[in-house]
Amino acid sequence: MEFVLPEGCISHILSFTSPADACRLSLISSTFQSAAESDAVWERFLPSDYQEIISRSVSPPTAVFSSKKDLYFRLCSHPILLDDGNMSFALDKRTGKKCYMLGAKRFYIPWGDHPQYWAWRSLPDSRAVDTVLKPECSGFSDVAQLLAVCWLEVCGRMETGILSPRTNYAVYFVFKFADRTQRLQKPPEKVYVFVGGAAEGPHVVDLDPDGHSRQEHQDSQERDADWRQRETELPRERGDGWLEIEMGQFFNDEGEYGEVEMILKGMEGLNWKSGLIIQGIEFRPKT
């Protein structure tokens, strides 16, 4: 006589796997499919505080989701705005780990409130956010556009307690360029990531406003260690049309009261710079 585990038992076992594993195992049979789609499984894949996070969204949810799986994948593909509308939250699709982006309004930018140096503008593509959970939100209300400074510095801070614990994170600077830029090619910028008082960096990045460095890099026939190192110094295009460049990485074991600080600096030479548009800094699990 063939012994078959009850569906509830299969669901319980699957809840200790991962979202990717649950989706793969659902192909075994109709019983596994039903078990893998149960709320008991996907409740475990959602962050334990997901209800509190959603309650902090800039407007009350208007959608009723048919299942926890539906909610999970909605949060993976449609970030939601939190608190003052200058932070967004999403889930990493493969792992279910938390992803956050800080909008530029939450940064310390020297002379950022002086209109002759920086302008705060609303762009229609500033952030792709959920149109079901939050129908009236189209993204961060403002992005920062550099008009003219010779001392470029952007500093952001994030409490590590709201990130997924015991997780490797990468930090990304998200930006684009105005139609005209000045002095953003040379000398290169430096980025720092500080966690619990310890610093990673500085390391040099090339914002590459005209795209020549990226094209030259891709055209190179070499794929050695130097090529891979150069890859980390150049921006890449995101699916939303913005650019991102990795600022650094850290392992989040700082506990509830830790803090990570990120700094981008472009001060060498004190040349006047313009044309940089900053959307934010994003934290994503490093896979």
Automatic annotation (TrEMBL):
<dbReference type="InterPro" id="IPR001810">
    <property type="entry name" value="F-box_dom"/>
</dbReference>
<dbReference type="InterPro" id="IPR025886">
    <property type="entry name" value="PP2-like"/>
</dbReference>
<protein>
    <recommendedName>
        <fullName>F-box domain-containing protein</fullName>
    </recommendedName>
</protein>
<feature type="domain" description="F-box">
    <location>
        <begin position="1"/>
        <end position="45"/>
    </location>
</feature>
<feature type="region of interest" description="Disordered">
    <location>
        <begin position="205"/>
        <end position="233"/>
    </location>
</feature>
<dbReference type="Pfam" id="PF14299">
    <property type="entry name" value="PP2"/>
</dbReference>
<dbReference type="Pfam" id="PF12937">
    <property type="entry name" value="F-box-like"/>
</dbReference>
<dbReference type="InterPro" id="IPR036047">
    <property type="entry name" value="F-box-like_dom_sf"/>
</dbReference>
